[in-house]
Amino acid sequence: MTEERIEFCYHYTLGPEWQQQIVAGIGATLKDNKILTMPGNIADGGSIFLEVNPGLSVLLLDMTFKVPVAITRIPTDHNYYMVYFDIGDEITTHIIGNTVHKAGYHAKLGMGFMDCSMQGVIMPPIGKRSYSLRLLIQKGYLKELAASTRDLETNNLLFDESKNTLLFYSHIDSRSKILLSQLKENDFTSPSFELKLKSTASYLLGYLMERASRFEPIINKLSNQDIERIFLTSEYLMENLLSEFPGLQKMADMAEMSVSKYKILFKKILKDSPNQFFLNEKLLLAQQLLSSGNFSSVQEVAYELGYSSPNYFTKVYKNMFQVLPGDILEKQNSKP
Q1: Is 16 helix (H, G, I), strand (E, B) or coil?
Q2: In the CATH hierarchy, which top-level class contains the domain 6-212?
């Protein structure tokens, strides 16, 4: 018999008061308005919440769930954006609107940026360590920080919610992943952890601002339907990496958009054109296959990925990673 899923709802605030919802909803305990411990019948571990400065708060969750749960963050009118970084030991399911996303070490897109007004549901795995960090950034504070990277007119348009929706999903960049991995080795209940967490949050925000400054400013107001359709097509691309790129017309038809609208909205949310996104994901998969020990040659990997020319595969791989695929190939049966 399938165990019944525990469901509860909450909403964030920039201050610590939101945690009382978890205490009241599932019987968690809260120490010093910072460290929340989950009830033992639901999960081991808990979370720590800190106000880093007047415009930035950070939440770190480190839990291993024993039963199925669905945790719903409900839309609010609180004035903040949320950034999440997920490096759990197994895939966590995130549902934004009606669209399912996967995050964790074994998933594709482990970082997301969104407005607090968007509803989200998290369904963590059972028996595997869930580990994620959330930055809650006051909207005015983020706009002020971004002003140094854009001209005033563009910056004002980016943060004008009547004209633009700030939302994107991506991979966790290498510098942020290193910081998060270092943090993951520490016990969040230790006395020195608060200082480490505040420092990490500040660095992560700095890296985010630096990264976002390189994004092309695409001003567009998104509907929930548009967001869901773009995510539907991105999931389709990631599930069909062993094939050729299906073509813009097919992807636009799947999203029920014109090709021009589809290209603009895809790049706004995923920060790459559909074709480049597909190529990047295919080559990241290639990196995994080359080091898996399941193939005897680069040629085999190229054919597995749908490349008819191994020489072309070698060229595009080197363009992306600056190394030849043969340099990282772990040949089949070469492991002791």
Answers
A1: helix
A2: mainly beta
